[in-house]
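Running this now, will post back.
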Amino acid sequence: FGVLAFSQNIVKFLYTRVFRLFRKDVEYNQSVTNQVVENIRQAAGLGLLCYVFDIIEIVTEVAGIDNTNMNFSSLLSKLLYATWAAFRVRTYKRSFFAAT
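Update: finished.
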């Protein structure tokens, strides 16, 4: 996740130097830019985890261990992304109702 943290630092630098000129009253941590970057960072981390599941499934199929016809990596990936999306919606809902 080092590359993701590095890219987040680049976006934070750009926000403080360029984008903040348009919205001087909003800090980076409370900005929409930070929320978008955080969502992309989390989705990329989940994508990496899904690739690990795919690799494990390929290794078990090549080794002859996997006898089922089910695609476990696909099921786990769908479950991970659906759970993550539900948590993100819950977070935005809470922050929306807290602001009103």
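The radius of gyration is 19 Å. More later if anyone needs it.
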